[in-house]
Amino acid sequence: MTSPHHNPNNNLGYVGLAKELLRDVGSDLRYLVGAVGTGGTLCGTVKELRRLGSKVVSIGVEPAGSIIFGGSPHQHWQTGAGAPAGFCVGPNVDHSLIDEELTVADVDAFATARIVARRTGFLVGGTAGMAIYVALRGLVANR
User: Fold this and answer.
1) pLDDT of residue 33
2) Any stretches that span the bilayer, and where are they (predicted)?
3) Are 132 and 77 in contact (CB under 8 A)?
4) What pLDDT is recorded for position 35?
5) Can you tell me whether residue 143 is helix, strand or coil?
6) Number of CB atoms found within 10 A of residue 101's CB
7) Tens digit of each residue's pLDDT, the chain (143 residues)
8) Cross-strand partners of 100
9) 3-state DSSP call for residue 140?
10) Which domains does the chain have, with CATH numbers?
Protein backbone atom coordinates (compact mmCIF):
# COMPACT_ATOMS: atom_id res chain seq x y z
CA MET A 1 0.00 0.00 0.00
CA THR A 2 1.35 3.44 -0.91
CA SER A 3 -0.27 5.28 2.04
CA PRO A 4 -0.78 8.57 0.17
CA HIS A 5 -1.75 10.45 3.34
CA HIS A 6 1.63 9.71 4.95
CA ASN A 7 3.98 9.15 2.00
CA PRO A 8 6.20 12.24 1.44
CA ASN A 9 6.69 11.21 -2.18
CA ASN A 10 3.02 12.04 -2.76
CA ASN A 11 3.70 15.77 -2.35
CA LEU A 12 6.99 15.59 -4.25
CA GLY A 13 5.13 14.23 -7.26
CA TYR A 14 3.71 17.71 -7.89
CA VAL A 15 7.01 19.60 -8.21
CA GLY A 16 6.69 19.30 -11.99
CA LEU A 17 3.14 20.68 -11.93
CA ALA A 18 4.34 23.80 -10.12
CA LYS A 19 7.02 24.38 -12.74
CA GLU A 20 4.51 23.79 -15.54
CA LEU A 21 2.08 26.31 -14.02
CA LEU A 22 4.80 28.96 -13.75
CA ARG A 23 5.95 28.27 -17.30
CA ASP A 24 2.42 28.47 -18.74
CA VAL A 25 0.88 31.18 -16.54
CA GLY A 26 3.96 33.01 -15.29
CA SER A 27 3.88 35.58 -12.53
CA ASP A 28 0.16 36.20 -13.18
CA LEU A 29 -0.61 33.08 -11.13
CA ARG A 30 -2.43 34.67 -8.19
CA TYR A 31 -4.64 31.88 -6.83
CA LEU A 32 -4.57 28.11 -6.75
CA VAL A 33 -7.84 26.45 -5.75
CA GLY A 34 -7.85 22.73 -5.10
CA ALA A 35 -9.26 19.90 -3.07
CA VAL A 36 -7.07 19.02 -0.11
CA GLY A 37 -7.68 15.25 0.12
CA THR A 38 -4.33 13.62 0.88
CA GLY A 39 -2.53 16.96 0.68
CA GLY A 40 -0.36 15.80 -2.21
CA THR A 41 -1.62 17.91 -5.08
CA LEU A 42 -2.42 21.17 -3.33
CA CYS A 43 0.30 21.25 -0.67
CA GLY A 44 2.97 19.75 -2.92
CA THR A 45 2.27 22.24 -5.70
CA VAL A 46 2.02 25.27 -3.41
CA LYS A 47 5.24 24.41 -1.57
CA GLU A 48 7.18 24.24 -4.84
CA LEU A 49 5.54 27.38 -6.25
CA ARG A 50 6.58 29.32 -3.18
CA ARG A 51 10.07 27.83 -3.23
CA LEU A 52 10.34 29.18 -6.78
CA GLY A 53 9.29 32.66 -5.62
CA SER A 54 5.57 32.67 -6.37
CA LYS A 55 3.29 34.60 -4.04
CA VAL A 56 0.30 32.45 -5.00
CA VAL A 57 -2.64 32.40 -2.59
CA SER A 58 -3.76 28.83 -1.97
CA ILE A 59 -7.39 27.98 -1.33
CA GLY A 60 -8.01 24.48 -0.04
CA VAL A 61 -11.50 23.05 -0.39
CA GLU A 62 -13.11 20.04 1.24
CA PRO A 63 -16.63 18.64 1.38
CA ALA A 64 -18.75 19.97 4.23
CA GLY A 65 -18.54 17.22 6.85
CA SER A 66 -14.84 16.51 6.33
CA ILE A 67 -12.66 16.82 9.44
CA ILE A 68 -9.54 17.97 7.57
CA PHE A 69 -10.15 21.59 8.62
CA GLY A 70 -11.37 20.58 12.07
CA GLY A 71 -15.09 21.00 11.44
CA SER A 72 -17.95 18.85 12.68
CA PRO A 73 -18.01 15.51 10.88
CA HIS A 74 -21.04 14.38 8.95
CA GLN A 75 -21.76 12.25 5.92
CA HIS A 76 -20.94 13.63 2.48
CA TRP A 77 -21.22 12.12 -0.99
CA GLN A 78 -18.22 13.66 -2.72
CA THR A 79 -15.43 11.17 -3.34
CA GLY A 80 -11.73 11.84 -3.74
CA ALA A 81 -11.67 14.31 -0.87
CA GLY A 82 -13.03 14.52 2.63
CA ALA A 83 -12.11 12.70 5.80
CA PRO A 84 -14.65 11.09 8.15
CA ALA A 85 -14.78 11.28 11.94
CA GLY A 86 -11.85 9.48 13.55
CA PHE A 87 -9.67 9.65 10.44
CA CYS A 88 -5.98 10.36 11.07
CA VAL A 89 -5.10 13.26 8.78
CA GLY A 90 -1.53 12.67 7.63
CA PRO A 91 1.40 15.09 7.54
CA ASN A 92 1.00 15.69 3.79
CA VAL A 93 -1.82 18.09 4.67
CA ASP A 94 0.31 21.09 5.64
CA HIS A 95 -2.10 23.75 6.90
CA SER A 96 0.70 26.35 6.84
CA LEU A 97 0.62 26.13 3.03
CA ILE A 98 -3.15 26.68 2.78
CA ASP A 99 -4.10 30.35 3.00
CA GLU A 100 -7.85 29.83 3.00
CA GLU A 101 -9.72 26.68 4.02
CA LEU A 102 -13.27 26.35 2.73
CA THR A 103 -15.91 23.64 2.76
CA VAL A 104 -18.54 23.09 0.09
CA ALA A 105 -21.89 21.35 0.46
CA ASP A 106 -22.55 18.33 -1.75
CA VAL A 107 -25.46 20.06 -3.48
CA ASP A 108 -23.24 22.98 -4.56
CA ALA A 109 -20.40 20.72 -5.73
CA PHE A 110 -22.64 18.41 -7.76
CA ALA A 111 -24.77 21.25 -9.17
CA THR A 112 -21.59 22.98 -10.36
CA ALA A 113 -20.33 19.75 -11.95
CA ARG A 114 -23.64 19.41 -13.82
CA ILE A 115 -23.52 23.01 -15.05
CA VAL A 116 -19.96 22.51 -16.30
CA ALA A 117 -21.03 19.36 -18.15
CA ARG A 118 -24.06 21.02 -19.73
CA ARG A 119 -22.27 24.17 -20.82
CA THR A 120 -18.88 22.81 -21.84
CA GLY A 121 -19.19 19.06 -22.36
CA PHE A 122 -16.50 18.45 -19.73
CA LEU A 123 -17.50 15.70 -17.34
CA VAL A 124 -16.12 16.46 -13.89
CA GLY A 125 -16.88 14.87 -10.57
CA GLY A 126 -17.97 16.34 -7.27
CA THR A 127 -14.45 17.13 -6.12
CA ALA A 128 -13.72 19.19 -9.25
CA GLY A 129 -17.20 20.71 -8.98
CA MET A 130 -16.33 21.77 -5.45
CA ALA A 131 -13.12 23.52 -6.57
CA ILE A 132 -14.83 25.17 -9.56
CA TYR A 133 -17.64 26.37 -7.29
CA VAL A 134 -15.14 28.10 -4.99
CA ALA A 135 -13.16 29.56 -7.91
CA LEU A 136 -16.30 30.98 -9.54
CA ARG A 137 -17.51 32.48 -6.26
CA GLY A 138 -14.11 34.13 -5.89
CA LEU A 139 -14.32 35.60 -9.39
CA VAL A 140 -17.77 37.03 -8.71
CA ALA A 141 -16.70 38.47 -5.35
CA ASN A 142 -13.60 40.15 -6.81
CA ARG A 143 -15.26 41.97 -9.72
Assistant:
1) 96
2) none
3) no
4) 93
5) coil
6) 16
7) 578 878 888 888 899 999 999 999 987 899 999 999 888 899 999 999 999 999 999 999 999 988 888 888 778 777 777 777 777 788 889 999 999 999 999 999 999 999 999 999 999 999 999 999 999 998 878 75
8) 59
9) helix
10) 8-103 (3.40.50.1100)
Of 92, 102, 101, nearest to 41 by C-alpha is 92
Helices (H), the chain: 8-12, 15-25, 40-51, 106-120, 126-141
Half-sphere exposure of 6 (CA within 13 A, CB side): 6
Q: In sequence order, which residues have a C-beta less than 8 Å from that of residue 91 and are 6 or more positions away?
A: 6, 8, 39
SS3 state of residue 6: coil
pLDDT of residue 43: 95
Edge-to-edge strands, sheet with 100-104: 31-35, 57-63, 100-104
Tell which phi-psi region holds residue 97, choosing left (phi > 0), alpha (psi between -120 and 50) or beta: alpha
